Amino acid sequence: MTDSPGGKRGGKRERLVAGAAELVHRKGVAATSLADIAQASGVPVGNVYYYFKTKDDLLRAVIEAQVDQVEALLTGLADLPGPAERLKALVGQWERMRDVVARYGCPFGTLAADLDRRDDGLDVEAAGPIRRILDWAEDQLRALGAQDARELATTLFAGIQGGALLAGALRDPEVMSTQVRHLRQWIDTLARSRGRTSPNG
């Protein structure tokens, strides 16, 4: 998993979405203009309106790209031998991008938080990638035989986001790595006990 969906290659629309994803992650939604996105994407600003009538339309495309990124990740994890291995590999994605997380936060969490105060539906859409991860983690935890799988999935992802938030606040990538190790140990404990365990207890 990368710090923003997609890459700069491809057609103009794809480049605009990738450029927007990177900029809103690093600068925030309010501080990112369509002109900024056009420049970062190497697309003339006049062409932006051919693909996206408004900034919100472009933000929706970024959210859709995040969902696609999550789906691709989860599809790849399906090749691992068991639910514990898949859950630990999921958590490990945040260690792989720990330097970016320590500077700009988790791309899913920061965008959802950035849009949280809106009430036009975009706030709900921004949580889509997180909901998909929660649904998947719930399925994996249920496969482990864990009770209250949804609650445990929420606890797991809260641990990821808490680690990302603290790593960013302290500008310390090692905080993210430490949290990932802790969560992996918790998953191993769950796999052994098949019971209800908290990563903080």
UniProtKB/TrEMBL annotation:
Signal peptide: none annotated. Residues 33-52 bind DNA. Pfam families: TetR_C_13_2, TetR_N. GO terms for molecular function: DNA binding. Keywords: DNA-binding, Transcription, Transcription regulation. Residues 10-70 form the HTH tetR-type domain. SUPFAM superfamilies: Homeodomain-like (SSF46689), Tetracyclin repressor-like, C-terminal domain (SSF48498). The keyword Disulfide bond does not apply. This is TetR family transcriptional regulator.
